[in-house]
Design goal:
This is Termination factor Rho. This protein is an alpha+beta fold. The chain has one helix at about 35-40, and strands at about 5, 10, 20, 25, 55.
């Protein structure tokens, strides 16, 4: 599964109320995210019309 970085602060209101700060990894350790939730947060297809997370490029493996 790709890794995502938070680019805009938000509160996970649909589940546990976790607050994600800019630079955090999404989802938090021990949490799972659905495809629909990832799309909602990584595009402007949400009620705020803002992007909240971006996919992190995988690090080169040696």
């Amino acid at each position: 599964m790709p890794e995502y970085k938070v680019v805009r602060r938000f509160k996970e209101t649909k589940h546990d109320g976790h607050v994600y700060e800019v630079g955090d990894i999404y989802p938090a350790e021990g949490k799972k995210a659905t495809k629909a939730r990832l799309e909602e947060l990584s595009t402007k297809k949400n009620k705020y019309e803002q992007i909240f997370i971006e996919e992190v490029a995988p690090k080169d493996k040696e």
